Amino acid sequence: MSAPTTRERPRLKDRYLDEIRGALQQELGVGNVMQVPRLEKIVLNCGVGRATQQASLLDGAVADLTRITGQKPLVTRAKKSIAGFKLREGNAIGAKVTLRGDRMWEFYDRLVSVAIPRIRDFRGLNPKSFDGRGNYTFGVTEQLIFPEIDYDKIDTVRGMDITIVTSGATDDQGRALLRALGFPFRRDEQSQG
Protein backbone atom coordinates (compact mmCIF):
# COMPACT_ATOMS: atom_id res chain seq x y z
CA MET A 1 0.00 0.00 0.00
CA SER A 2 1.43 3.36 -0.99
CA ALA A 3 1.68 6.36 1.30
CA PRO A 4 -1.03 8.99 0.88
CA THR A 5 0.07 11.87 -1.30
CA THR A 6 -0.28 15.36 0.10
CA ARG A 7 -1.28 17.93 -2.45
CA GLU A 8 0.26 21.33 -2.34
CA ARG A 9 -2.16 24.24 -2.05
CA PRO A 10 -2.23 26.74 -4.94
CA ARG A 11 0.04 29.73 -4.33
CA LEU A 12 -2.74 32.28 -4.73
CA LYS A 13 -4.90 30.45 -2.19
CA ASP A 14 -2.00 30.49 0.29
CA ARG A 15 -1.51 34.21 -0.30
CA TYR A 16 -5.24 34.83 0.19
CA LEU A 17 -5.34 32.90 3.48
CA ASP A 18 -2.07 34.36 4.84
CA GLU A 19 -2.15 38.01 3.71
CA ILE A 20 -5.16 39.13 1.69
CA ARG A 21 -7.95 37.89 3.98
CA GLY A 22 -6.64 39.83 7.00
CA ALA A 23 -6.12 43.00 4.97
CA LEU A 24 -9.62 42.73 3.46
CA GLN A 25 -11.14 42.24 6.92
CA GLN A 26 -9.63 45.55 8.05
CA GLU A 27 -10.43 47.37 4.79
CA LEU A 28 -14.09 46.30 4.76
CA GLY A 29 -14.49 46.63 8.52
CA VAL A 30 -16.09 43.22 9.09
CA GLY A 31 -15.85 41.73 12.57
CA ASN A 32 -15.69 38.04 11.76
CA VAL A 33 -13.09 36.54 9.43
CA MET A 34 -15.82 34.31 7.93
CA GLN A 35 -17.58 37.43 6.59
CA VAL A 36 -14.59 38.36 4.42
CA PRO A 37 -15.48 37.78 0.75
CA ARG A 38 -13.82 34.81 -0.97
CA LEU A 39 -13.93 33.10 -4.35
CA GLU A 40 -16.68 30.47 -4.53
CA LYS A 41 -16.54 29.29 -8.14
CA ILE A 42 -15.59 30.30 -11.67
CA VAL A 43 -17.90 29.41 -14.56
CA LEU A 44 -16.76 29.39 -18.20
CA ASN A 45 -19.57 29.40 -20.75
CA CYS A 46 -19.06 29.01 -24.48
CA GLY A 47 -22.16 29.43 -26.61
CA VAL A 48 -22.01 27.79 -30.03
CA GLY A 49 -25.21 28.84 -31.77
CA ARG A 50 -24.00 27.61 -35.16
CA ALA A 51 -23.77 24.07 -33.73
CA THR A 52 -27.36 23.49 -34.91
CA GLN A 53 -26.09 23.48 -38.51
CA GLN A 54 -22.57 22.13 -37.92
CA ALA A 55 -22.17 19.74 -34.97
CA SER A 56 -18.36 19.63 -35.21
CA LEU A 57 -18.19 23.23 -33.90
CA LEU A 58 -19.55 22.02 -30.57
CA ASP A 59 -16.91 19.29 -30.41
CA GLY A 60 -14.23 21.95 -30.93
CA ALA A 61 -15.67 24.09 -28.11
CA VAL A 62 -15.75 21.09 -25.76
CA ALA A 63 -12.14 20.23 -26.64
CA ASP A 64 -10.98 23.82 -26.10
CA LEU A 65 -12.72 24.15 -22.72
CA THR A 66 -11.29 20.78 -21.64
CA ARG A 67 -7.79 21.91 -22.57
CA ILE A 68 -8.16 25.31 -20.86
CA THR A 69 -9.67 24.10 -17.58
CA GLY A 70 -8.50 20.50 -17.27
CA GLN A 71 -12.09 19.44 -16.65
CA LYS A 72 -14.71 17.97 -18.99
CA PRO A 73 -17.41 20.54 -19.86
CA LEU A 74 -21.15 20.05 -19.65
CA VAL A 75 -22.93 20.36 -23.01
CA THR A 76 -25.82 22.83 -22.65
CA ARG A 77 -29.05 22.31 -24.55
CA ALA A 78 -31.80 24.62 -25.79
CA LYS A 79 -34.69 24.97 -23.33
CA LYS A 80 -37.28 25.93 -25.93
CA SER A 81 -37.75 25.89 -29.69
CA ILE A 82 -37.30 29.17 -31.60
CA ALA A 83 -38.27 28.95 -35.26
CA GLY A 84 -36.50 32.18 -36.24
CA PHE A 85 -33.17 30.71 -35.19
CA LYS A 86 -33.94 27.22 -36.57
CA LEU A 87 -33.60 25.92 -33.03
CA ARG A 88 -35.39 22.91 -31.56
CA GLU A 89 -35.82 22.15 -27.90
CA GLY A 90 -33.02 19.88 -26.72
CA ASN A 91 -30.48 20.86 -29.41
CA ALA A 92 -26.91 21.14 -28.13
CA ILE A 93 -25.98 24.84 -28.32
CA GLY A 94 -23.02 25.35 -25.99
CA ALA A 95 -20.71 24.09 -23.28
CA LYS A 96 -19.91 25.22 -19.76
CA VAL A 97 -17.46 24.35 -17.00
CA THR A 98 -17.76 25.14 -13.29
CA LEU A 99 -14.48 25.25 -11.40
CA ARG A 100 -14.31 25.00 -7.61
CA GLY A 101 -11.60 24.38 -5.01
CA ASP A 102 -7.93 24.17 -5.95
CA ARG A 103 -8.68 24.01 -9.71
CA MET A 104 -10.54 27.32 -9.41
CA TRP A 105 -7.61 29.00 -7.62
CA GLU A 106 -5.09 27.70 -10.18
CA PHE A 107 -7.28 28.78 -13.10
CA TYR A 108 -7.77 32.27 -11.60
CA ASP A 109 -4.01 32.60 -11.12
CA ARG A 110 -3.34 31.60 -14.76
CA LEU A 111 -6.17 33.83 -15.99
CA VAL A 112 -4.89 36.98 -14.28
CA SER A 113 -1.15 36.46 -14.69
CA VAL A 114 -0.95 34.86 -18.17
CA ALA A 115 -4.17 34.89 -20.21
CA ILE A 116 -5.67 38.36 -19.69
CA PRO A 117 -2.39 40.21 -20.44
CA ARG A 118 -2.33 38.39 -23.82
CA ILE A 119 -5.54 40.13 -24.95
CA ARG A 120 -4.81 42.40 -27.91
CA ASP A 121 -4.81 46.17 -27.08
CA PHE A 122 -5.57 45.40 -23.45
CA ARG A 123 -6.21 48.42 -21.24
CA GLY A 124 -7.99 46.75 -18.35
CA LEU A 125 -11.46 45.29 -17.78
CA ASN A 126 -14.55 47.30 -16.95
CA PRO A 127 -14.90 47.68 -13.16
CA LYS A 128 -18.68 48.12 -13.52
CA SER A 129 -19.48 44.63 -14.82
CA PHE A 130 -20.73 43.38 -11.46
CA ASP A 131 -24.22 41.91 -11.11
CA GLY A 132 -25.28 43.62 -7.86
CA ARG A 133 -24.37 40.63 -5.66
CA GLY A 134 -20.56 40.79 -5.87
CA ASN A 135 -20.15 38.52 -8.93
CA TYR A 136 -18.13 39.64 -11.95
CA THR A 137 -18.73 38.57 -15.55
CA PHE A 138 -16.68 39.44 -18.60
CA GLY A 139 -16.37 38.16 -22.14
CA VAL A 140 -13.32 36.98 -24.02
CA THR A 141 -13.49 37.28 -27.81
CA GLU A 142 -11.04 34.51 -28.66
CA GLN A 143 -9.77 31.38 -26.93
CA LEU A 144 -6.24 32.02 -28.21
CA ILE A 145 -5.32 34.10 -25.15
CA PHE A 146 -4.98 30.88 -23.16
CA PRO A 147 -1.50 29.35 -23.59
CA GLU A 148 -2.96 25.81 -23.55
CA ILE A 149 -4.60 26.38 -26.95
CA ASP A 150 -2.40 25.54 -29.94
CA TYR A 151 -2.99 28.10 -32.70
CA ASP A 152 -2.50 25.52 -35.46
CA LYS A 153 -5.07 23.07 -34.10
CA ILE A 154 -8.14 25.32 -33.73
CA ASP A 155 -11.05 24.98 -36.15
CA THR A 156 -12.53 28.45 -35.55
CA VAL A 157 -12.00 31.41 -33.24
CA ARG A 158 -14.65 31.37 -30.51
CA GLY A 159 -15.28 33.54 -27.51
CA MET A 160 -16.56 32.73 -24.06
CA ASP A 161 -18.03 34.32 -20.96
CA ILE A 162 -16.20 33.97 -17.67
CA THR A 163 -18.11 34.53 -14.42
CA ILE A 164 -16.25 34.88 -11.14
CA VAL A 165 -18.64 34.15 -8.26
CA THR A 166 -17.65 35.59 -4.88
CA SER A 167 -19.22 35.33 -1.45
CA GLY A 168 -19.34 39.14 -1.24
CA ALA A 169 -22.82 40.50 -0.54
CA THR A 170 -22.31 43.74 -2.48
CA ASP A 171 -20.44 44.85 -5.59
CA ASP A 172 -18.01 46.84 -3.44
CA GLN A 173 -17.03 43.73 -1.49
CA GLY A 174 -16.58 41.72 -4.71
CA ARG A 175 -14.56 44.55 -6.28
CA ALA A 176 -12.33 44.81 -3.18
CA LEU A 177 -11.68 41.05 -3.25
CA LEU A 178 -10.83 40.95 -6.97
CA ARG A 179 -8.64 44.04 -6.70
CA ALA A 180 -6.76 42.44 -3.77
CA LEU A 181 -6.29 39.27 -5.86
CA GLY A 182 -4.67 41.33 -8.64
CA PHE A 183 -7.56 41.55 -11.12
CA PRO A 184 -6.71 44.05 -13.90
CA PHE A 185 -9.52 46.63 -13.75
CA ARG A 186 -9.40 49.66 -16.04
CA ARG A 187 -7.62 52.57 -14.35
CA ASP A 188 -9.43 55.59 -15.86
CA GLU A 189 -12.87 54.50 -14.63
CA GLN A 190 -11.59 53.60 -11.17
CA SER A 191 -10.56 57.18 -10.46
CA GLN A 192 -13.92 58.56 -11.67
CA GLY A 193 -16.32 56.05 -10.04
Question: How would you describe this structure to a colleague?
Answer:
The protein is an alpha+beta fold. Helix content is 33%, strand content 17%. It has helices at residues 11-28, 56-69, 101-115, 171-180, 187-192, and strands at 39-47, 74-77, 92-99, 136-140, 160-166. The chain has a five-stranded antiparallel β-sheet. The termini are far apart.
Quick structural summary:
The protein is α+β, with helices and mostly antiparallel strands.
Keywords:
single chain; 193 residues; alpha+beta; five-stranded antiparallel beta sheet; 5 strands; 33% helix; 17% strand; disordered C terminus
So what's the overall shape?
globular
Placed side by side, the strands forming the largest sheet appear as 2-3-1-5-4
> Which series of helices and strands comes N to C?
HEHEEHEEHH
Give the class from helix and strand content and strand pairing.
Answer: alpha+beta
Poorly predicted runs = 189-193
- The rounded distance between the terminal residues' Cα atoms is 59 Å
Strand coverage percent: 15-25%
Please count the beta strands (DSSP E, at least 2 residues each).
Answer: 5
Number of helices: 5
Largest sheet: 5 strands, antiparallel
**Mean pLDDT score, rounded?**
84
**Residues in helix, %:** 25-40%
Write down the Rg: 19 Å
